[in-house]
């Protein structure tokens, strides 16, 4: 097993590295905030409410999720300034624990987490658009094969996948500029709509939707609910994947993640108050997209249609960053020979990993065909939590080696990373009791990949050098 104890990576970018540190603090804030506050907050409240016996428990899920995300973000900020290179967690795990762990994490992220997240969000976006008057045609089939029907909404979801892929292939600067626009316009509209809903929600007539809150949720129900909340907060770690492209990472990464997480927690609490002003808690599980339903209830059919467009922009903002980050993992793994070598190719003029982006687009498009956004979110949410806990634990390794003394250091050590890991372990442990077994499947796949790489290295008689280090051959 190859474990590096090299000092923090302050070397210039390797040949073929992506764009040369073109992202400033404003772009970093827009990337993090836009990647978090997307469509997830509108799709997950129903699943969280189903496992909440009362408003206090429902609110506790969101507050706890925000605190856990903030703890993880502060740890990731230190890790990102320690190793500001493309690849993010793949680099940290390789430096701390060696290739088998990094390999398993990279494969699960490249093949499950990022393509699954992209597909899930765009499935739901297409579903939201299909519920509007101008989008009714999206419910019609393009073609049918036996019982399977390929709808226009499926084609719309795939189109959005390839739209964000094309934007990311263009250039990093164009992507960051578009991200800034797509972040602040939808966020401003959502805040105004949320305040208006809270102010006028008390005058709405009773809803005739059925009640469907679990009276006594089991441990698996609570775990699944938290995984949905965690998934809604995901995105705070995006900057670590782009470390090689950020100006002054030791300052801009911590500032951006702290500001973005603080703002996100405030926005999520405000939006949840708006949802609960429009619908009682026991009605939320019956609603697939609570944001769209709230807009229609408050502002009528036209309000729902406008909102559908707004959340489409927000989703594109989030997936723009997710697409950008996911390709950097494939890029780092391909450089190390664990993925197709051509995925490490970077366009000489645009400085974007075009091949990695295109393959990620293909995987996301295939997952769109599952039509099961809820399943994809549950699976990716549990896998993300598992992988995040493993990554956060690397801080103990680096601090023990006395690394990063001249870089940003997260406050609250060792309690902050311990809090993150403890909550994650409790949720994962509870998830192992769930009938779906999605958490167990994710854990089994991770361990299998790790074992496969370890045995492969033993069979070859050597291990590859750590990420970012020169190959002795």
Strand content: under 5%
Query: What coarse outline follows from CA principal-axis ratios?
Result: globular
CATH fold name: Amino acid/polyamine transporter I
Helix content: 55-70%
Order of helices and strands: HHHHHHEEHHHHHHHHHH
CATH-derived architecture: Up-down Bundle
Counted beta strands: 2
Cα distance, first to last residue? 18 Å
Secondary-structure-based class equals mainly alpha
| Count of alpha and pi helical runs | 16
- CATH first level: which class? Mainly Alpha
Main pleated-sheet profile = 2 strands, antiparallel
Q: Calculate the mean pLDDT score and round it.
A: 79
Uncertain runs are 1-19, 468-473
Number of domains: 1
Query: What order do the strands of the largest sheet run in, or round the barrel if closed?
Result: 1-2
Name the CATH superfamily classification.
Answer: Amino acid/polyamine transporter I
* Rg, Cα atoms, Å: 22 Å
Task: Describe, in short, the structure shown.
This protein is mainly α and 473 residues long. 66% of the residues lie in helices and 2% in strands.
Notes on the protein architecture:
This protein has 473 residues and is an all-alpha fold. The chain has one domain: Amino acid/polyamine transporter I (Up-down Bundle), CATH 1.20.1740.10. It contains 16 helices and 2 strands. Strands 1-2 form a two-stranded antiparallel ribbon. Helix 7 (152-170) crosses helix 11 (290-335) and helix 11 (290-335) crosses helix 12. The model is unreliable at 1-19 and 468-473 (pLDDT under 50).
